[in-house]
Amino acid sequence: MTLQNKVVVITGASAGFGQAAALAFGKLGARIFLGARRIQKLEETVRQALGLGCPEAQAHFLDVTRTESVEEYVGWLKQRVEKVDVLVNNAGGAKGLEPVAEGKDEDWEFMLQANVLGLLRMTRAVLPLMVNNPGSTIINVGSVAGHTAYEGGAAYCAAKAGEAMITKALRLELCGTGVRVCSVDPGLAETEFSLVRFKGNAERARKVYEGMTPLCAEDVAEAMVWVAARPAHVCVNELVITPTDQAAIHKIHRRKADGQSAGSGGRAF
Ligand code: 8X3
Fold first, then answer.
1. Which active-site residues does the annotation give?
2. What pTM value is reported for the model?
3. Domain ranges, residue 31
4. Which CATH number do you get for residue 54?
5. Which of 80, 92, 122, 205 gets the highest tally of CB atoms within 10 A of its CB?
6. How far is the CA of 43 from the centre of ligand 1 (A)?
7. Is the pLDDT reported for residue 114 higher than 80?
8. Whether the predicted pLDDT of 107 surpasses 80
């Protein structure tokens, strides 16, 4: 279906997948409504989208970890639109890579608040604008981490496995309404993800993608656009996208600086 003039709401739209999705949907003529905590970055994304021919782009502060913020955001949204065609639940992320024995409460709380409760809150608040709109689409950003656990990833993997289960439960609950629910699950993607996980340690973040070709935000945004543009009777349940260099969560092919293969190994970060 065409995305022209469709209303697309994107959380975590100030960077990474969310920002790339804003530009990808905007470029195809969708009306985009963005939310995130970093309002200046959101406004920059709005400007870029309008420059690409997006017919309408607006942004408002949103912190999905707080119910009041979600409600305030959706109140703002309801003053501007009568229905929502696409909801991209992208806000989330990882903090820390410590084993459980050394885990920090604030990191666990952030990951579960943002990836799990934030997704629930946002969906609950936006659903009334979608259920009378057959063919509308909820796209939840999952991860390969929701399919397979890795060392140091307990809380993040649990959060993304939670996202996968919420996606499945929602699809059951919404069967018959015409609302489609999809999980887009990327593997290693070079965005701010690792910088946030490692709390600003750029060298450590860089090493995650060293010697391999990761996904970029645009790869994932393209998949979101494809999912939303399927005919109304087609629901893409789950889309797992990894870099070609990543065959599994623990099998990543890396090359040395001279281009020679360094072999395939574990995550090593
Ligand atoms: C991010 C992918 O493998 O770093 O969701 O957890 S991974």
1. 156, 160
2. 0.96
3. 7-264
4. 3.40.50.720
5. 92
6. 27
7. yes
8. yes
Report if residue 202 sits inside a domain.
Answer: yes
Domain annotation covers residue 48:
yes
**What single string gives the DSSP state of each residue in 65-76?**
T-HHHHHHHHHH
Does the pLDDT of residue 268 top 60, yes or no? no
Candidate from 156, 185, 192, 220 with most ligand 1 atoms within 8 A of CB, to mutate: 156
Q: Rounded CA gap, 138 and 158, in Å?
A: 21
Structure tokens at 212: 């391999």
Total residue count of the chain as it appears in this document? 269
Alpha helices by DSSP H, 175-233? 193-197, 202-208, 217-228
Output the CA torsion 144→179→129→217 (10° steps): 30
End-to-end CA distance of the chain: 42
115 within some domain: yes
Q: Which residues line ligand 1 (CB under 6 A)?
A: 143-145, 153, 187-188, 193, 249
Closest ligand 1 atom number to CA of residue 157 = 6
The answer to whether 20 and 3 are in contact (CB under 8 A) is: no
Q: What total of structural domains would you count in the chain?
A: 1
Q: Which two tokens stand for residue 140?
A: 């939840």
